[in-house]
Design goal:
By secondary structure, this protein is mainly α. It has helices at residues 3-41, 46-83, 88-99, 104-111, 115-133, 147-150.
Length: 153
């Protein structure tokens, strides 16, 4: 794993967390929709759908809690690593990009440099410095799995 891949795990983890939050919301909406249909139609058989969706939402909530916990631990480690870099321009760039999740345009505005320069040259130099300071940075990140990854493990 390269330094860039290591640092990019933070935005990737954020995306997974948001995806899990959307799945939970969908389950809750399906349960609510099923409940409303049952009330309107006075039908039967929908109770299982409600229960299934509520159960799925509860399971996903537990998984989400673990994902967030792993993310926060990893974010703290990376924040401390970046914070110990002696070059404040490099550390600021990496912090803004990976911890704060800024776009390249926002990072460039913070550094008062052009986007292309920041994205290509300055970013490469910052990654190289990170790698020099932490030659043995972890070659792996906390494992954050989505629902399908839990099946059979």
């Amino acid at each position: 794993m390269t330094v860039k891949e290591y640092l990019e795990e933070l935005p990737n983890m954020r995306m997974r967390i948001r995806a899990m939050e959307r799945k939970i919301q969908e389950c809750e909406e399906r349960a609510s929709d099923t409940s409303a249909k049952l009330t309107d139609e006075h039908g039967s058989g929908g109770g299982n759908k409600i229960t299934d969706n509520v159960d799925e939402a509860v399971d996903l909530e537990a998984k989400l809690k673990e994902m967030v916990k792993g993310f926060k631990r990893f974010e703290l480690i990376v924040s401390e690593q970046i914070g110990k870099m002696p070059n404040s321009t490099y550390s600021g760039l990496l912090f803004n990009k990976y911890i704060n999740g800024m776009t390249w345009e926002e990072v460039a505005a913070e550094t008062d440099k052009g986007v292309d320069y920041v994205r290509k040259e300055l970013h490469s130099k910052a990654l190289a410095e990170f790698s020099k300071i932490y030659p043995d940075y972890p070659r792996f990140t906390p494992c954050i799995l989505l629902e399908n990854d839990y099946n059979g493990r």
